[in-house]
Amino acid sequence: MRLAYTDEGPGPAVVLLHGFPLGRAMWKEQVTAIGSMYRVIAPDLRGHGESPAPDGDYTIDEMADDVIELLDTLGLDVPVVVGGLSMGGYVALSLAERYPDRLRALLLMDTRAAADSPEAIAKREELAQAVLKAGNPGPAIEAMIPRLFSPWFVENRPELVAPLRRVMERNSARGVIGALRAMAARPDRTPVLARIRVPTLVLVGEEDAITPPVELQAMADAIPGARLEVVPRAGHLAPYENPPVANGVILRFLDEHPEPPPHPPS
Ligand code: MLT
Q1: Domains (range + CATH), the chain
Q2: How much is the pTM?
């Protein structure tokens, strides 16, 4: 599937995959800061933003295949840095398992490797039914907003919550339902963590209510050589809520792991 995407900046490619039910607009501050030194490629995953939202249920693996198709279209056959937040992290882990040769480093942000519990699956289906009935993503937006941001951010930064609310409102009911069912059906990728062979940074907002720091610490502990960075004064959307700290941490990690020089022609 042809995804809509942002492609900005010089240097080695860093692919950023957004959370649910958002779109690439959530990376605005990263496109500016990281994009001053790296080539930031940020797609709208299927069902979101300006990318197609086909009928039917999606899978996280299909979303990952779409990203590979985008890299192929861009001629990026060298391994790239992939960063995913929450649902984007599920996609990044699918890439790590299924396309390890396409990755040279991994950023796992406010996400988890485990599959949904039966209760979480039931809740997602309830939400999917509510979105279907409403004919718009409203029920998902109302359910997500208080969980995506820290209470402080919702209260004190309405001017930054509003643009992301608009991003969510522009998504279609079909896309939101497809993504909810993709997340509900995703496999447990906990066993993949120990097999990750690329440098990995795990990042989490200190007040993340969906994937709390203790879970991300366990994830970092399970990945060889990975480290956890906790972003202060931020919830689940840590890079959006506290970009100066998140960007600093990400840039330091990227600088520590430069792209290897190309092989000399034989
Ligand atoms: C997200 O931010 O992408 C969602 O919170 C992921 C989820 O609901 O599992």
Answers
A1: 5-256 (3.40.50.1820)
A2: 0.97
